[in-house]
Amino acid sequence: MRSHRSPLSVLLIAGVLLAPGLRAASYDGSDPYYRQRSPNQTGDFQYDDSKDVPWREGSTQVPPPPGEDAPLGQLKLDSLQKAFTAHLDTSTLGLSPVDGVLRYWLVVRSGGSATISYEGMNCRTREYKIYAFADPREPDGLRMVREPRWQLLGITRRSDYRWELADSYLCIGTNAKTPADVIGTIGGYYQRQNPFSEYTDNTRPQIP
User: Fold this and answer.
1) What is the DSSP string of 14-71?
2) CATH topology of domain 72-201
3) What is the pTM of this model?
4) 208 to each of 141, 156, 199, 204, how far by Cα in Å?
5) Is CB count within 10 Å lower at the N or C end of the chain?
6) CATH code 2.40.128 region(s) in the chain
């Protein structure tokens, strides 16, 4: 004897078979691989982004600028003009667990002059921010930037040494390195500690 299901039971069965968040799609005869696709590839996925928490920068405390005995690690940056040298104060390297920003004192020297700036690198968005400047010739030479803003790294590496700083020393793809890994990179030991880092380095966004 053939059993007959009520319309209500048919609707209930259909609701159970359909995955949550998916809406059934009509058969697409123009797609030769339609029958091989999983439900989430053939259906219309519904995602509620109202509960997503937007990224916010955490509070930033500027440490004292590097003194004469500060551990400055010299950086090898091909994009920096030959008359200049760049150094990181490794004692002030800090990776925030709140916003994922790597912050540091950067020293760029040319002859007897130097530009000393406290900066942050956001590897996820390829942006940097300058929070403060320091003048070693003055006892109280710390000068805070009134309205620090995030700035995009340059289009090409040739004209922006911070792009090379991010790629070569501070970032792995879209993630910031730990201070220990940055120090290892400056010392030339990072590849020895992370022999497969070139695979993650290649995940960085392409040059526009």
Assistant:
1) HHHHSPTT-------TT-TTGGGS-HHHHS-----GGGPPPP-PPP--PPPPP-TT--
2) Lipocalin (2.40.128)
3) 0.67
4) 38, 9, 21, 12
5) N
6) 72-201
